[in-house]
Amino acid sequence: MKARDRDDEGRARSARPRDGLGRPLPYGAPGVGRQPEGVVRTPAGTVAEAQRLLDDGMPFHAHEVFEDAWKSGPAVEAPLWRGLAQLAVGLTHAARGNTVGGARLLRRGAEGLAGVEPAHGIDVAGLVRWARELADRVEAGTVVDAAREAPGLGGGRGRRLE
Question: How far apart are CA 102 and CA 145, in angstroms?
Fold first, then answer.
């Protein structure tokens, strides 16, 4: 039996390379660098890094950035970052072709963000509308390209929210 991959602290963690949507690739295949975990960023830094990753079609990696903010930031902001992480994972699943999971996570993220006050220049209401509209399209069979569907969080070159 093959020993499990471990990180530097000895925790089980796959060393397999990943593609831009976070899917594991065979050992030795070229992949996309992993997003480092546990990075504490300013809110502006979080938004900028996540927007860059979304614009590059890497919502799985953007979710990890939001997750770091959710876990390291003030508890009062956790619903914002958690909702954004769920939207990013929903976009990931939709782009992978998982229509049920993609739509479900997009809706869960939208519900989590509904009523959250805008902060850090993030267009919360626009993201809620975007997620619900994309969930409807995913359920209707739309093939999703993660970069083309990337929302603008409130800046960056992502899709403009109306």
Answer: 13
